[in-house]
Amino acid sequence: GITRHYKFDIKMKNVTRLCHTKSIATVNGQFPGPRIVAREGDRVVIKVVNHVQNNISIHWHGIRQLQSGWADGPAYVTQCPIQTGQTYVYNFTITGQRGTLWWHAHISWLRSTIYGPIIILPKPNVPYPFTKPYKEVPMILGEWFNDDTEAIINQAMLTGGGPNVSDAYTINGLPGHLYNCSAKDTFKLKVKPGKTYLLRLINAALNDELFFSIANHTLIVVDADAVYIKPFETDTILIAPGQTSNVLLKTKAFNPKATFLMAAGPYVTGLGTFDNSTTTGILEYEGNPTIKRLQLFRPVLPSLNDTSFATNFTNKFRSLATTQYPANVPQNVDKRFFFTIGLGTNPCPRNHTCQGPNGSMFAASVNNISFALPTTALLQAHFSGQLTGLYSSNGVSTQKKNRVFTTDFPSSPTHKFNYTGTPPNNTQVSNGGAKVVVLPFNASVELIMQDTSILGAESHPLHLHGFNFFVVGQGFGNYDVNKDSANFNLLDPVERNTIGVPVGGWVAIRFFADNPGVWFMHCHLEIHTSWGLKMAWVVLDGKLPNQKLTPPPSDLPKC
Ligand code: C2O
């Protein structure tokens, strides 16, 4: 591979949407941000310079970061943030991945405007395992807020209430013609008849899973999270925040002399914090007569809470599992975990008025632990812990604590109950601080994630940094180890980095802990992350030189 250099200047920029101008944090003044284009095997070097008042860090969502954990980006997990006037160089190699991923700010809610695509082409002379597209089109779905998103999340955390919802969904930063004064801010895709287009779809929305459809056109899904899948046809895509998917769009053989709308709107299962609106774009055939008014076709999206569509759609994803693109599914398990994933509440502090349910504060947790980020980076603490003998050589931690995190994250929930029955009276979440799970190098891990349904059942797109995992099972109700594990797909399960824990159900994933470092895992609904639906895995070094985390780069930001 070759080395590709990028420079990201973080700066403010006035942007107008919905007839409302605001100053937003951007990369290089662009919204959405610039594309990163590389080939599998290339090294990517991005110099990030922070010219704004906020602290910044950038995450390369879905990049494996083998041995390069210092470049992963989540603030207070793998690095301290880049402060005003400071610079940090992210440096990583793309290994064994091709498709579409994306980058976004990973501190507070700044990812609402700081995001862009990562396009990973196959190695030179390696074709796609599907029809060669005539053109490739990155399409990022997002959310636009008229108000400042930092103010929104600060207010929500202070009052314990739900945050304000966005004012529009967007396609490539554009709300589309259904929104107030947005006709000119409508994404337009001009196509030729009889061709195949590759749409590189990304869901960069903060808080909503989205349906996406194009009127009178079938889509063929060929990849998920930069891994090829067995292609399947669909009229509508469901894509969760954090997920990416490449889909083929075959245009009509002859110019249909019509205009087709594309649309994206939310899939919402839980608490009703959503904006029931639709972003639109236009699919237009080249060579249409410009004067004549063309017939307009509109797509039909599933209804807001169509969980049966969601289930059917998710079940269609299968790994290619060929000799060229094998599915390296762990067949045996070294470490088993059962995590409850859900919302709850914490009591309102004394002499305070709170706007959560019954005067409480909203909270969220994994195994009843509402994770709190430390004020320095976990990875640095881990790295120095390795040097000072925090862990024994077989991967067991010899002490419970260093000063930054503890290693006693529970491997199963601290309170058990019937997760799909009547919610218990006690919906409280404990504040667990920074507790992590330590894994020996290359352990094969099975993780069951169960939606708790404590406070309204909700689908949670869980994202794991540093790994792809295999989705070996999924179901509704309470996970039953005897019944459900017998039906796991260990042959061709889909491999991805973000998967929905279904509303009122569970998902089972497996992965090899083959990447030393500290790896964040969280719900990619941003408000849930803010409320504490997050945790971290520590993966210890292996014995061989290429199984060790490298020392930190000299420009690693300080807290
Ligand atoms: Cu796309 Cu931790 O994030």
Automatic annotation (TrEMBL):
PROSITE patterns referenced in this protein's UniProt entry, alphabetically: MULTICOPPER_OXIDASE1, MULTICOPPER_OXIDASE2
UniProt-recorded name of the protein: Laccase
EC category name: oxidoreductase
Entry cofactors: Cu cation
Subcellular localization, as worded in the UniProt entry: Secreted, Extracellular space, Apoplast
Record text on cofactor binding: Binds 4 Cu cations per monomer.
GO molecular function terms listed in the Swiss-Prot or TrEMBL record: copper ion binding; hydroquinone:oxygen oxidoreductase activity
Taxonomic superkingdom: Eukaryota
Domain Plastocyanin-like: 10-123, 136-288, 409-541
Pfam families: Cu-oxidase, Cu-oxidase_2, Cu-oxidase_3
GO cellular component, one term: apoplast
Role this protein plays: Lignin degradation and detoxification of lignin-derived products.
InterPro entries reported for this sequence: Cu-oxidase-like_N, Cu-oxidase_2nd, Cu-oxidase_C, Cu-oxidase_fam, Cu_oxidase_CS, Cu_oxidase_Cu_BS, Cupredoxin, CuRO_1_LCC
Catalysis performed (reactions): 4 hydroquinone + O2 = 4 benzosemiquinone + 2 H2O
Regions crossing the membrane: none
Keywords from the UniProt entry: Apoplast, Copper, Lignin degradation, Metal-binding, Oxidoreductase, Repeat, Secreted, Signal
EC number: 1.10.3.2
Protein family membership: Belongs to the multicopper oxidase family.
SUPFAM superfamilies: Cupredoxins (SSF49503)
Predominant subcellular localization, coarse grouping: secreted
One record GO biological process: lignin catabolic process
